[in-house]
Specification:
Elements lengths: L9 H21 L6 H4 L1 E8 L5 H9 L7 E5 L2 E9 L4 H15 L2 E9 L1 H30 L2 H25 L5 H29 L7 H33 L5 H38 L15 H12 L1
């Protein structure tokens, strides 16, 4: 493993990222995002059927009305009660749908039938964007505090934006529906990505504190190799659990599992080929500017180890 020069492959990593990001961004700009009724508004039906239905049976009935993508939920303590969220239906369409449910399940009682207006959907969408934005800002503040370096914080934030764009772009390309659960996907991706990046950055900081005679690319590459097995093992374990959710969790949770899987893969990848690679290139760029005598200040060194370690080093120096 020591012979692997992953940092030396960072240019190919940049190219791969662009090949993944560009189609997704084009899909977002041309096709747009397929927002679900949580964000666009629609019709909410709460019905009690004549017998205990399966979700697939209910979805089959809805499919005859072109509503196969509707959100269907069952109450665990009321097995005959089903909550259905669809695109906006008028009174005649609602009546035909309830009649079809009555014919299929031997009776139907409408407990609630109401429309969710687009204004409420826009408010939910704005709140979702705000939640993700706050999550990003908190992560930047945490990285800045943890490593006492804006350089670490900004490169980690670029990796986060990379991961979020990959997931959003994949949803746009595959025309998957974006609903309230998608917000949970994005926040989970933010947390997973920053956790993996922190592990790599922390090892980089420890390696640079050992005063090894090597350049920054070599030190960063050594640090990555030391934590690579851990990152791959963690990612593989997460993917195995998500795959089980995808195939065993039912149709309604597959989009959620798809987003998580994409986020775990790109989060593991970006901690090496985006965050760490940008950290190296930023340092090398600063060194080149300093050698050319540019007015910019000398390149910022990689941050020292924790404060306790600095104090111990000073005590040894005094001795």
């Amino acid at each position: 493993m020591k012979a692997w020069n992953l940092i030396g492959l960072r240019r190919y990593g940049y190219i791969l990222s662009l090949l993944i990001l560009i189609p997704g961004v084009v899909a977002i700009l041309t096709w747009g995002i397929n927002f679900g009724i949580d964000f666009t508004g629609g019709t909410l039906l709460d019905v009690r059927l004549g017998r205990d239905p399966s979700l697939e049976e209910v979805r089959t009935v809805l499919g005859t009305f072109g509503l196969a993508e509707a959100v269907i939920q069952k109450s665990p303590d009321r097995p005959r009660q089903v909550l259905i969220r669809t695109a906006t239906l008028d009174e005649a369409q609602t009546a035909r749908l309830t009649a079809a449910l009555r014919d299929r399940f031997g009776g139907v009682e409408v407990l609630l039938a109401e429309r969710v207006g687009p204004k409420i959907g826009r408010e939910l969408r704005n709140q979702a964007i705000l939640a993700v934005t706050i999550g990003l800002l908190l992560q930047v503040i945490y990285i800045s505090w943890r490593f006492r370096s804006v350089r670490f914080a900004l490169t980690a934030d670029v990796a986060l934006l990379h991961d979020l764009l990959v997931v959003i772009g994949l949803y746009a390309l595959t025309r998957r529906q974006v609903d309230s659960s998608f917000v949970a996907v994005l926040l989970t991706v933010v947390g997973y990505s920053i956790n993996d990046t922190v592990v790599v950055f922390d090892r980089i900081r420890e390696t640079t504190s050992q005063r090894i005679r090597a350049g920054v690319p070599e030190l960063v590459n050594r640090s990555i190799l030391e934590v690579l097995t851990r990152s791959l093992t963690t990612g593989t374990g997460a993917i195995m659990a998500i795959v089980a959710i995808y195939f065993l969790g039912g149709v309604t949770i597959r989009d959620f599992a798809f987003g998580l899987a994409a986020g775990v893969v790109t989060g593991t990848y970006s901690s090496i080929f985006v965050a760490s690679a940008l950290l190296v290139d930023w340092h090398l760029w600063s060194e080149r500017r300093a050698r050319r005598g540019a007015p910019a200040r000398a390149p910022e060194p990689l941050p020292p180890p924790a404060v306790a370690g600095n104090r111990a080093a000073r005590r040894r120096a005094r001795r």
